[in-house]
Amino acid sequence: MRSVFVSCLCLAGGMFDANASVVHIGATPHLKVKDLKGNEFDLDQQRGRIVLVHFFATWCPGCELELPVLEAFSAKHATEGVQVVMLTPEHARSLGAIRKMLGSRDLRTARIDEASVNDFGIPGTLPSTFLLNKNGEVRFSFSPDSKVLTRDELENAYESLMTQNADAGVSFDPKWVKVTGQCKTQKSPGSVLFLKQWHLSPKANTRDQVTKLPQDQNQDSIFTQVSEWVKNKEVDTILVEGCTWPTEVKEGFTTVFNGWSLRDLIKLKGTPALKASQTHVGLKLKAQFGDAIKVLCSDDSEKINQQQLALSDARADLGYWNRLKDSVDHDDLRKSYLESANEAFHLQKDTNYLETMSVIKGSLITDLKKVDELLDVRSDLLAKHVLEIAAKSKLPPVLIWGGLHADRTREQLEKGRMNCSIVTPLGYEDTEEKTIKSFGIALPAHQERK
Question: Mean pLDDT for the chain?
């Protein structure tokens, strides 16, 4: 907790006016200022990003205490497009002291007298912090009372802004979902909602499933949150994976997922059994809401099959790699595994351990590269389709896709200057991401064995 001396009432020498106008909650202030590196910061150009504006001074003890909080906040959310700008009322002769106080911290800093536009004025007390949403509105302000601004306070405020997501025009229910990322766009004609899905195995038949699956909670969270949006008329278009663009899921759609067809699910409309069914969420939503929503396939079935085959090959490669690696101190096992691997990879029977391991590693790298390329292709196609839909839609399209595509799709949406929210439903597990990463981790330098 901060003692009273930390709060610095800015009345020193008449330099600052404690009654200077300071923006209020809900205001949309303008700020244009040149920072200490000579770069211009224009708050109007930050639309689509959350912005933190912080006022400080070198002679303010509380200001120095809050620097680590701001540094951690900036570093944690930089990839989400969050902008942090620090402003000080001190004169140019204090530049040395300012830089000394900041040290090696990479925080954009400017002097207020370098501002050509400043609707914030000069706060009467320092430190003072303002957190603005993606529409440029001040939603939180923190000024000295009796304690230092904490990481938890700032993170809670940030999380609240993320769930408000004014750009998307939807309400997020924290019981079901949490916004965990956003596109770093400045100006956008619309917004997109990407819900991370934890896949059911495409080959699994769940028609007679009586036990719960690990994915159940994730599937239930997606169904419940999207249902709330549809009922509130906040969304009306859903893009799903697993079937080829531009097929629409509607009467006559015959593709079966996990043993369920659309016709099967329509029979369960309005019953708890529909929500509990363990299958494609897009089909369940269409069965429940009918013509109130449009559910569009946004994938490429051929690319899906190619990716699954490449991933299966990579798993097989890794299996051979691990068996050989773990048998280096067991001659009989090593000999047996080596013969098996040489046969599988079409090598001469007398190919030695090192040569075989080199071939397996090369095969694994090739297969993983193919998986990565196909993930890119599918994500690029998804972004292309959703940009096309969003340009024509008054409401934000919802993407229900595997979380492995989230960051890739976000990059493409940013290139298309489209706002987006990456939404992680309750129960989501990043098993696919972990699987892909595990392949690289599992390739340490093998022992030198002839």
Answer: 87
DSSP β-ladder status, 237-244 and 398-402: parallel
- Regarding whether 156 and 183 lie in a shared domain, the answer is no
Whether the predicted pLDDT of 17 surpasses 50: no
Please tell me what DSSP assigns to residue 257. B
pLDDT of res. 211: 85
Q: Are residues 180 and 231 in the same domain?
A: yes
* pLDDT score recorded for residue 440: 67
Mean pLDDT, rounded, for 424-437: 87
Query: What is the C-alpha to C-alpha distance for residues 3 and 411, in angstroms, rounded to an integer?
Result: 45
What's the structural domain count of the chain? 2
Q: CATH number of the domain that 90 lies in?
A: 3.40.30.10
pLDDT > 80? residue 160: no
Q: Are 80 and 221 found together in one domain?
A: no
Torsion (CA) 62, 63, 66, 71 in degrees, nearest 10: -170
18: three-class secondary structure by DSSP: coil
Convert the pLDDT of each residue in 97-121 to its tens digit: 999 999 999 999 999 999 999 999 9
182 in the same domain as 90: no
DSSP state of 260: B
Q: Among candidates 260, 242, 245, which has minimal Cα distance to 199?
A: 242
Count the residues in the chain: 450
At 446, the pLDDT band (50, 70, 90 cuts) reads very low
Report the Cα–Cα distance between both ends of the chain, in Å, rounded: 64
Give 82's contacts (C-beta < 8 A, 6+ positions apart): 49, 50, 51, 52, 73, 74, 158
Q: How far apart are CA 412 and CA 408, in angstroms?
A: 7
Write out the two tokens for 270: 């309005």
Supply the Cα-derived Rg of the chain in whole angstroms.
28
Sheet holding 177-182, edge to edge: 177-182, 419-425, 191-197, 398-402, 237-244, 294-299, 248-249
Cβ partners under 8 Å of residue 183, min gap 6: 48, 81, 192, 410, 413, 414, 418, 419, 420, 421
Domain range spanning residue 293? 167-450
What is the spatial distance between Cα 234 and Cα 217, in angstroms, rounded to a whole number? Answer: 23
Q: How many CB atoms lie within 10 A of CB 296?
A: 21
In the predicted structure, residue 5 carries a pLDDT above the cut 50: no
Percent above pLDDT 90 for the chain: 63
Q: Strands 128-132 and 138-142, how do they pair?
A: antiparallel
